[in-house]
Amino acid sequence: MSTESIEASGVVTSANVTSDVSVVTTTHTDQRTGGPAMGQRILDIRNFSVDYGWGEGAVRAVNNVDLHLNRSTVLGIAGESGSGKSTLVYGFTRLLRAPGVIAGGEALFNLQSEDGTDIIVDLVTASEKELRKVRWSNISVVLQSALSALNPVLRVGTQFEQVLKTHRRDMSKADRRARTVELLALVGLNEDRLRRYPHELSGGQRQRVMIALALALDPQLVIMDEPTTALDVVTQREIISKLFELRSRFGFAMIFITHDLSLLVELADEIVVMYAGEIVERASAQALYDTPRHPYTLGLLNSFPPMHGVRTELTGIPGSPPDLAQLPTGCNFNPRCPYAMERCLKESPSLADLGEDGRSVACWLHSGDAGVVVPVELRRTGKGKREPAPMPVKRDVS
Ligand SMILES: Nc1ncnc2c1ncn2[C@@H]1O[C@H](COP(=O)(O)OP(=O)(O)OP(=O)(O)O)[C@@H](O)[C@H]1O
Ligand code: SF4
Ligand SMILES: [Mg+2]
Questions:
Q1: Residue whose CA is closest, atom 9 of ligand 1?
Q2: CB of 83 within 8 A of CB of 277?
Q3: Best probe residue, ligand 1, of 62, 83, 272 (max atoms within 8 Å of C-beta)
Q4: Rounded distance from Cα 221 to ligand 3 centre (Å)
Q5: CB count, 10 Å around CB of 115?
Q6: How is residue 104 annotated by DSSP?
Q7: Does the beta carbon of 324 lie inside 6 Å of ligand 1?
Q8: Does the C-beta of 87 come closer than 6 Å to ligand 1?
Q9: Is 362 in the pocket of ligand 2 (CB under 6 A)?
Q10: Of these four, 114, 126, 127, 223, which has the most CB atoms within 10 Å of its CB?
Q11: Are the CB atoms for 357 and 287 separated by under 8 Å?
Q12: Distance 130 CA to ligand 3 centre (A)
């Protein structure tokens, strides 16, 4: 399989970072501080927007997103279907296909050399050549459609062989074989799978193969877009446990996308919640679970059963996500929000720092000048004591 076809198949991987650093020429310091540009930060996305279509017919699927990720940490992205999770990651990894276009912003990726020097490439402006090297060297992506992404006419072993041959030219055939067997073992598969074609594997086995391929070249950042949605719950759990065991072992940073917020609460260090293409809340996983600040986050938490603990009644979120071509005025969530106020119908809240250990939220309830009492459900405290807090009956704000 050529590198092109591997990319098209949904896995982007490449060789060890140190061997490819020299291709990235964009080295700079932070202009605001004059100090090291990113330090522990591996990814810094700023004001990032993506449109589908052009001109008057364009819809904004990702709007002014700011996002950052530190080395060796897990960032979860949650949100209902259509909230822009996949578009965001396809956008900044430049895997977006027409009619998707990046409408603005930057996505700084820090390659960081072995001596700790920041080597930063803006994935948005990088040339195709630079991008390919960086992407394949350092970032691997398992796309949402990964289950059907393996090449159906090539044996599993051949697919590994071609990835390693393309990116580790110094590897002998025997070394490639040994590495492939090692990778399969990492994801709990026997080497006899190497002679199989993808259709001869179960869905769970194919997904394990995809994960092994994604890890084949020691990426610094692994992006998983709903990697297990098509699998049964038991297999999902097994694969996710394996994935996180590998992450602890190899220390790569990870972006994990799912609409299942309760899963993320268990797996991620930090979580961002997206709604209608925007980030509406960002917090540590524990803080988000214990004290959700945005009504939409609360609604999502009440839509999924917790992975452990007492059974709770699920309440869901009334209504459905907005049509991006006809967003409401004011806060995008106002038609569904039980706490909506007059101001919410007119003005759109920006993501604002709450001064609580990096937490931020886009909701007028938490604005200092809102002059309203924050509902108790949205300022709950008490670690691990989340009671099911049903969404209140929608108030009439007309
Ligand atoms: N090719 C496309 N053309 C036009 N609009 C698109 C296209 N792909 C996605 N969109 C729109 O962009 C928005 C974001 O879609 P996206 O696939 O990023 O959502 P998502 O959060 O990943 O959803 P899911 O959980 O279903 O995967 C949606 O409103 C979707 O309809
Ligand atoms: S800004 Fe208003 S409508 Fe939007 S989430 Fe907050 S309370 Fe609800
Ligand atoms: Mg998606």
A1: 87
A2: yes
A3: 83
A4: 19
A5: 5
A6: E
A7: yes
A8: yes
A9: no
A10: 223
A11: yes
A12: 26
For CA atoms 81, 84, 89, 93, give the dihedral sign.
positive
* Tokens (6 digits) for 256: 């994990």
- Domains for the chain: give ranges and CATH numbers: 3-26+40-259 (3.40.50.300), 292-306+328-398 (no CATH)
Which atom from ligand 2 is nearest to the alpha carbon of 366? 6
Q: What are the pLDDT tens digits along the chain (398 aa)?
A: 333 333 333 333 322 222 222 223 233 444 443 444 567 899 999 999 999 999 888 999 999 999 999 999 999 999 999 999 999 999 999 999 999 999 999 999 998 777 778 889 999 999 988 887 776 668 998 877 756 778 999 999 999 999 899 888 899 999 999 999 999 998 889 999 999 999 999 888 888 898 888 888 889 999 999 887 777 778 778 888 888 888 888 899 999 998 888 788 888 999 999 999 999 999 999 999 989 999 999 999 888 766 555 566 666 788 999 999 999 999 999 999 999 999 999 999 999 998 888 899 999 999 877 677 788 778 765 444 455 445 544 444 43
Written as six digits, the tokens of 93 are 């990894």
CB 280, CB 363: distance < 8 Å:
yes
Among candidate residues 266, 269, 236, 233, the one with its CA nearest the CA of residue 251:
269
Burial of residue 354, with CB atoms counted within 10 A of its CB: 0-12 exposed, 13-18 middle, 19 or more buried: middle
Does residue 344 have its Cβ closer than 6 Å to ligand 2?
A: yes
Phi-psi region of 357 (alpha: psi -120 to 50; beta: other; left: phi over 0): left
- Ligand 3 centre distance from Cα of residue 125 (Å): 24
